Amino acid sequence: MHARTAENAAGRRPGKESGDNLVAKKPAAPKKAGLKANRYRIDAVDRALVLLDALAATPGANASQLAAQLGANRSLVFRLLSTLVGRGVAIKDEHNRYRLGPQVYYLGQQSEGNTALVDVTTDVLDRLLSETEENVYLMVRDGTAVRCVAARVSPQPIRLAPDVGTTGELHSGIVSRMLLAYAPADVQDDVLSNHLAEFAPAGMRSRAKVEALLVRIRAA
């Protein structure tokens, strides 16, 4: 009996390959009180979005490189990439390398233009840029991550600025500390229980000290 026939006879669905889950090799995150899993998640959509994140982080990668990065089956990654290319969300060059496509830019522009938070802070961002001539960012918390949703770039010749859409971790950076201070108790518990060493400098790595810092930030 051929290998494929044997697999099908054993109950394996045709075309179902190992590594179909793009995040299958990552260990499951510990469940925390108050942090609920999304039971309405559609796996196929989630896989495509994981792949988009990887493509944004490594523009110019080919299907094999993306598959290796995600610990996924190359055939699955190739099929997902082909779907994304067909929708204009990704583009493929003559060397079979992939980048984000123009549809992503369009969606980003639409999102920024239609986001109420961005709308109400536009004048503030513009004024801060005019007064300081420094980079100005509008950052929001997304679960235990931090995302840049709007930015004004300094006119100075030497500058560093994250792109709109850039994400980071809630346990890293000054902005993250402020956002964590106003985050719900379950989010604070998650960060302080799992990322205390990354969040705080060596001389402050006690939960009590960090919690006292968050209190001072809220009181400022």
Task: Describe what you observe in this structure.
The structure is a single chain. With 220 residues, the protein is mainly alpha-helical. It folds into two domains: 16-104, Arc Repressor Mutant, subunit A; 135-219, 2-Layer Sandwich (Beta-Lactamase). The chain contains ten helices and five strands, in the order ααααββααβββαααα. The strands form two sheets. A three-stranded antiparallel β-sheet has the order 3-4-5, sandwiched between helices. Strands 1-2 form a two-stranded antiparallel sheet. α7 crosses α10 (207-219).
How would you summarize what this structure contains?
49% of the residues lie in helices and 11% in strands. It is mostly helical.
> What general form does the structure show?
globular
What is the total tally of β strands?
5
**Terminal-residue CA separation:** 73 Å
Q: What helical percentage do the residues reach?
A: 40-55%
Q: How much of the residues is beta strand, in percent? A: 5-15%
Radius of gyration: 22 Å
Low-confidence spans = 1-19, 24-36
**Overall pLDDT confidence:** 79
Strand order of the largest sheet: 3-4-5
Count of helical stretches: 10
Q: How many domains would you count in the coordinates?
A: 2
CATH architecture title of the largest domain: Orthogonal Bundle
- Which structural class is indicated by helix and strand composition? mainly alpha
CATH class of the largest domain: Mainly Alpha
CATH fourth-tier homologous superfamily of the largest domain: Winged helix-like DNA-binding domain superfamily/Winged helix DNA-binding domain
CATH topology assignment of the largest domain: Arc Repressor Mutant, subunit A
